Amino acid sequence: MTVRAITPAPGPVCGTIRPPGSRSITNRALVVAALADGESALESVGLSDDTRVCAAALGALGIAVDVDEAARRMRVAGCAGRVPAGPKDLDTGDSGTATRFITALAAAGRGRYRIDGSPRMRGRPIQDLLDGLAALGVTARSEAGTGCPPVLVETAGLAGGTVRLGGAVSSQYLSGLLMAAPAAADAVTVEVAGDLVSKPYVDMTVAVMEAFGVEVQRDGYARFHVAAPQAYAARTYAVEPDASSASYFMAAAAATGGRVTVLGLARASAQGDAHFPDVLREMGCAVEWTDRGVTVAGPERLTGLRIDLNAMPDMVLTLAPLALLARGRTVIKNVANLRVKESDRLSALATELSRLGAKVEEYPDGLAITPPKTIRPAEVATYSDHRIAMGMAVVGLATPGIRIADPECVAKTYPGFFDDLDRLARGEAEPRPRA
Fold first, then answer.
1. Share of residues in the chain with pLDDT > 90 (%)
2. Is 273 an active-site residue?
3. Lesser CB count within 10 Å: N end or C end of the chain?
């Protein structure tokens, strides 16, 4: 396993950057375009392990996806709602997004489909989605009986009807069902049982569906209705920059008292993580939105805070490392679903922040972090989790001695992350948008 030493920034981190396209939007656009009538061109896509594995799974399903890496473009030959028949074996690697979305998409086909992924993916839950598909007339089960992949889907298509779907573990189940719903034989209504986690990701799903011509009728986050059968309309679709990736560059400004502008990110973005600047403002940062993007300027010293991050749980991986540099305690609550992500992120953060000298209290649904007087140099384990690697790297810009184990894990969502972070820290010109 390789280790990457993070070089502290020579001064406050200042500069301008345009992150790659949103991985979350790219995968949603891929699935919707796959069901569309005609060929769609997806522009400014986020090229990463997650999006490549989703494109490859669609190809294995029989839906042609042409990927132009240099142009950051994907062309998708839509099936007009007629998913190629099985039997098919589909590999979704380490991508929870692709696994949940491809499972729902396969259920709209005919025949037998097997969806499997990495060893870690085999430990990530999918049972709520399988139960939802059963309500639509599909036989879908966990092959090992664990409620996790591998998944076997035997289907004659989605019948339509009303589904009651659990929302406490992941919003991806709901997103997958909604995107597949237009291919059903009759209208689909989804009622969410309990409180839905990661609500902004459902807003993102609905926005992408509507961009391709399918309206979703909804009652807040409790009930969703999609008319069927219908096909999405093929189109050219530009993917906006990834707000999750942008958060690390904003954090670099916050950690070092610098000033960073993220180009292309809109305040009205459907990405929930685009609200992370509001969190940084609560910690003492100055935030300015313009028609070019958002600028974050860090204070002399950050301030700890108490916050519910249920709407943007991935941002815990950006905020928690910043808590090491804050004055006072930071308490993060209502993010229990982080325990079933690429790693048990709450446990992993508690271990690694403690390694750097913080006092960390771990709760079932969050963390309380008391920063150390002095951050200890250490090699940070990343648990094959891209967001732990990226978030902890920011600490290394503000304090010496931080080393990141297995830095290659960032390829899951942002292969060029460390190069872009280094350039920004050195004050070089705006990095060219990259995969």
1. 95
2. no
3. N
Model pTM score: 0.88
pLDDT of residue 254: 98
Residue 151 is part of which domain span?
23-225
Q: Is residue 237 part of a domain?
A: no
Rounded mean pLDDT of 74-81? 98
Same structural domain, 16 and 31 = no
Shared domain for 135 and 211, answered yes or no, is yes
**H/E/C letters for each residue in the chain?**
CCEEECCCCCCCCEEEECCCECHHHHHHHHHHHHHEECEEEEECCCCCHHHHHHHHHHHHHCCCEEEECCCCEEEEECCCCCCCCCCEEEECCCCHHHHHHHHHHHHCCCEEEEEECCCCHHHCCCHHHHHHHHHCCCEEEECCCCCCCCEEEEECCCCCEEEEEECCCCCHHHHHHHHHHHHCCCCEEEEEECCCCCHHHHHHHHHHHHHCCCCCEEECCCEEEECCCCCEECCEEECCECHHHHHHHHHHHHHHCCEEEEECCCCCCCCHHHHHHHHHHHCCCEEEECCCEEEEECCCCEECCEEECCCCHHHHHHHHHHHCCEECCEEEECCHHHHHCCCCHHHHHHHHHHHCCCEEEEECCEEEEECCCCCCCEEECCCCCHHHHHHHHHHHHHCCCEEEECHHHHHHCCCCHHHHHHHHHCCCCCCCCCC
**Which pLDDT band, with edges at 50, 70 and 90, does 280 fall under?**
very high
